[in-house]
UniProtKB/TrEMBL annotation:
This is Copper transport protein. It comes from the Eukaryota. The keyword Transmembrane applies. Keywords: Copper, Copper transport, Ion transport, Membrane, Transmembrane, Transmembrane helix, Transport. The chain crosses the membrane at residues 54-74. One of its GO terms (molecular function) is copper ion transmembrane transporter activity. PANTHER family: COPPER TRANSPORTER 2-RELATED, SOLUTE CARRIER FAMILY 31 COPPER TRANSPORTERS. It is a multi-pass membrane protein. Pfam families: Ctr (PF04145).
Length: 152
């Protein structure tokens, strides 16, 4: 039976995506297509942080620390010269997978278009860069990185 393209469950509730005047609603959740400010965002998981201030702050802290860790993984030396080449390859592969996985999670969080998430991601990358390349560390003259830095 043709019902105009709407799928109905057994209880008669429509399962079709809802749309607003600008077409930015999906299954009852507002999908922002421009930057906005506020705690009413969906960050990484459905229903999280759920408009709760404490959970929003936790989400911002998580994005911040993931951004810091990405920079530290990109610019820190973990492998000693003269190590077993097979072990070096495995460690570099694990570090690369961790770094890329974190980078994708930060990117997905940024796709919430929340201004706070954007700011903490940039600040996290800046702090991670500062800590990993500042005067706190001794410079390496031969090969300063285990992994090449991410390029844009």
């Amino acid at each position: 039976m043709d019902d105009g393209g709407h799928m109905h469950g057994m209880d008669g509730m429509s399962m079709a995506p809802k749309s607003s005047s600008n077409g930015t609603m999906m299954m009852g959740h507002k999908m922002h297509m421009t930057f906005f400010w506020g705690k009413d965002a969906l960050i990484l998981f459905d229903g999280w942080p759920g408009g709760k201030t404490g959970m929003y702050v936790l989400a911002l802290i998580l994005v911040f620390f993931m951004s810091v860790l990405i920079e530290l993984l990109s610019r820190t030396r973990f492998i000693k010269p003269g190590s077993n080449p097979v072990a070096v390859g495995l460690v570099q592969t694990l570090l690369h997978a961790l770094r890329i996985g974190l980078a994708y999670l930060v990117m997905l969080a940024l796709m919430s278009f929340n201004g706070g998430v954007f700011l903490v991601a940039v600040l996290g990358h800046a702090l991670g860069f500062f800590v990993s390349t500042s005067a706190f560390k001794k410079p390496h003259h031969d090969d300063p990185y285990d992994l090449p830095p991410l390029s844009c």
